[in-house]
Fold UDP-N-acetylmuramoyl-tripeptide--D-alanyl-D-alanine ligase.
Amino acid sequence: MTLWTAADAAKATGGQAMGDWSVTGFGIDSRALEPGQMFVALKAARDGHDFVRMALDAGAGAALVSRVPEGCENAPLLLVEDVQRALEALGRAGRMRTRAKVIAVTGSVGKTSTKEMLRHCLSAQGRTHAAIKSYNNHWGVPLTLAAIPAEADFAVVEIGMNHPGEIAPLSAQAQPHVAAVMNVAPVHLEAFNDGLQGIAREKASIFTGLVAGGTAIWNADLEDSDILAERGTTSFGRSTGVDWRLTEIKTGSDSTTCAAETPLGEVLYRVGAPGAHFALNALAVLAAIHAAGGDVARAAVSLAGWTPPEGRGKRHAVTLHPDQPAVDLIDDAYNANPASVGAALDLLAATEVPSRARRIAILGDMKELGPTGPDLHAGLADHPAMAAIDIVHTVGPLMRHLHDVLPADHRGTHAPDSANFVLALRDIARPGDAVLVKGSLSMQMTTLVEGLRALGEAPNGARPEKT
C-alpha cells in the first residue's frame, strides 16, 4: 500500500523529488529495510548516505538525502537541505492527515511493553499503527508519525528522553489525544541536577502536546505524583481516591488476574504474563483506550492474549534433561534501572519453583545513574524480594558493589562483562530453576539469554561440552 508519493513527500518537506516514485514505509537500517520503504539517510554514528546505494539495491522505494551519493544520480531520491528536519516535516504531515486517535506513552520503565499492550488490544478494535521496537527519540517519533496510514483508527507513539527538554517537542509533533505517564524512576540521573523531581517534570511535559480536550493519564502511586497531578486529568494506581484503581492482583505461573475500580464500574481482567508491574501497566492501557473512544470490555479480554516482547520479561522454557522440569528463563535483558530491576526481582520472587529448585538472578550493570550509581547497585541487596531469591550472580563493575554486600549464601559468580560470564553458564541452572536475566542494553545480557536457551537445544537434552 502506498504511504507517500514523490509529489506528496516533496510538498510536505519542501524538498526536490528525483523521479516519480512511491513508498510504503520508512527504515533507517539498510540491512533491515523492507522492499518499497524509504531509506532515511540519517547522520548518527555513521553517515546514512554511505548506505543509500546498498538500500536501493535491496529494494528501497526511495531515499531521503541531503546530497546525492555517488552512483545514485538517477536513483529515486527526495533531496532536502537537512534529513532530520525533513523527517520531522514528514512526521507532522503524517500526523495532520490521519484520522487516527493518537495515544502517546512515556515513563522511566515499561514504555515499550505498554505500547505493545495498546497495539495488541487496539488491533482487535480497528486499524492500529504503533511505533516499532523502541523508536521513541528525536528520529523515532517522527518516523512513527510519518508512517501512520491516513485511514488508521488508532496510533500509539512511544516518547522517551535522555536529557531535559526532549519530551515536549516530541509531544508537540505527536499532538496526542491521550498521553500517559507510566512512572517516574531514577533513570538518566546524571542528566538531572534535581533528581527525581526533574525527571517527573520532564515526563509531565508530554501533556503539553495534547490536543484541546485531550486526556492526561498519570500514575498516582509515585513519590512525585504531585508534579504529574498539576497537569494530569485522569489518575491510575493502587492508591485510594484514584480514577482507575487496581484493587486485586493474583499472580499465576503464566498470567496475572486483576480487579479494578473504574469510572465504568468494576473491571476484571487477566494479563497474559505474571507480574504486578504488568497489571498496573494494563490498567493504564484500559484507561487510555477508554479515553480514546475504544471498548474497555473488549480490551480487557484482549489483555489475556498479550505476552511481553523479547528482552522485556518474555519467558522461555529451557529443557536441560528429558523427563525433568524445564528451567523457567525470564528474559528481561533489554534494559535496567533501579525501578525495573526491583519489579523484575519481585516477579522472580513470586515465581513458583518445584521442590529443591532455586530462584536465580543474573544482574548486569544499570547505566546512566551518575554518582549515585554505586550506592543504587549496592542498595539492591536490601530489596524485600531478595529474601526469596537463592542466588544472585552479577555482571559488570557497578554490579560488583552489589556482589560485595550480598550475604555469602546468596552471593553467586561475578564477572566483569557478559562475555566472561558466558563461560559460567553451563553450571548456572538445574532442572526446575527459575532464572532471571536483567541488565542495561550496553551490558549485552541478551548473550546470556541466548547461551542459556542454547543449553536446552543440545541433542537429547544433554548439555553442550565446554569450549
